[in-house]
Amino acid sequence: MKVETAGAARLGVNVDHVATLRQARRIRYPDPVAAAVVAELAGADNITVHLREDRRHIQDRDVQVLRRIVQTRLNLELAAVPEMVRFALEVRPDSVTLVPERREEVTTEGGLDLRAAFAPVREAVAALVAAGIHTGIFIDADTEQIERARETGANSIEIHTGRYCDAPDDAGMGRELALIRQGAVAAAKLDLEVHAGHGLNLQNAREVAAIPEIVEFNIGHSLVSRAVFVGLERAVSEMKALITAARAAGG
Ligand code: PXP
Q: Taking the model in full, what pTM does it have?
């Protein structure tokens, strides 16, 4: 399977929060499928959705329809549990990203802990990779986690950028950014494709986007939030331009 290592970076647009708004009323709109079409027209390189076990935003039908209409690539985030893996094997997204999930959390709170969850993750990765689906694991930028991710046979990791984005001051952000950079270099050396995401917005994405080893950024909440004021097309195209400029400038 092709593994990207450097050069241009992809923007994955996560449309979960369009579904969050729809589910607030449990009606038919706004439709995350329509959001995916607009995001692609604005330059998204893939569409990401997280099908949670509690179905709080994205529904099975959304993923099934997205599979048929997405023109770029469909990245499905899910927990490494048999029910979700079976669903992924049926729908056959272009990629799967395995994420931790706790019902009581407001959003994904950190990377998967492969010290605790190695066996079920390795099993899920084996089934998905055997089916030809590019499979990644969402982890913190920690050397042991990265080595364990490699041992599962995954194609990629997605580095959790939440702690960098939530750091209270510049010094904290600097420390977290250094960890992300080190983790990206370490993972690329192990031939893992490197992605990053969580909490990225127009104010904090530039420094992460300049890390050459990271080839894909998955961004949702800030884009959908900004879309309320400026429209989704503009929100996506601004972020795409920011990533492209950060790569060109090298930082
Ligand atoms: N990547 C992963 C693995 C995630 O779980 C999420 C949140 O669903 C994102 C990226 C996007 O995070 P945000 O919505 O904060 O941009």
A: 0.95
